[in-house]
Design a protein that fits this description.
178 residues; alpha+beta; Dihydrodipicolinate Reductase, domain 2; 3 domains; 4-stranded mixed sheet; 4 strands; globular
Length: 178
């Protein structure tokens, strides 16, 4: 915000918080560099995907700092064991709890971080074939990181564990719905 004001007001826009100018820019680095050239933020994404989904999933990640006030965005390329069409993926994602598919092939048929701000859903757009792999899809995913980040996910996981009976309230306590 301060750099933007400085650029428009012909003030001092030299970086103070980030290593390079962030206003009207994109920085392909978040966190600290590791010995392999990736960053600790990228390693955190690998670890989370492996922990949540499957430790054998292969992925590569480049975390990018983009000057938005709220939001996480991901450009995701997926490879499947069998063919899957974009229409089939849209249908599956529309049935996934907490996911909203906004995917029209027109100039405003996708979601941006500004659109997702203040919302609890994870939005998926731009679902299309990835021609670089046999059974691949590419998609765009956006969410409000302040709402759908750690806190809401933790509550939703706890609710699911409670509903499925995996965890039980201690005696003297009752479960609550948030």
């Amino acid at each position: 915000w301060n750099q933007t004001k400085a650029i428009y007001g012909l003030g001092d826009a030299r970086p103070k918080l980030f290593p390079k100018q962030i206003a009207f820019n994109v920085i392909p680095y978040i966190g600290s560099f590791l010995d392999d050239g990736y960053t600790d933020e990228e390693a955190k994404m690998w670890n989370e995907v492996h922990k949540i989904m499957d430790p054998s999933i292969k992925l590569t990640v480049t975390c990018v700092r983009v000057p938005v006030f709220v939001g996480h965005s991901e450009s995701v390329n997926l490879e499947f064991d069998r063919p899957i069409s974009p229409d089939e993926a849209r249908a599956l994602l529309r049935d996934a709890p907490g996911v909203m598919v906004i995917d029209k092939q027109e100039h405003d048929g996708y979601i941006t971080p500004v659109d997702a701000a203040g919302e609890h859903a994870v939005y998926v757009s731009r679902i299309r074939k990835d021609p670089t792999v046999e059974n691949g899809l590419s998609l765009w995913v956006v969410s409000d990181n302040l709402r759908k980040g750690a806190a809401l996910n933790a509550v939703q996981i706890a609710q699911l564990l409670d509903e499925t009976g995996i965890i039980k309230p201690a005696s003297g306590y009752r479960s609550i719905t948030v």
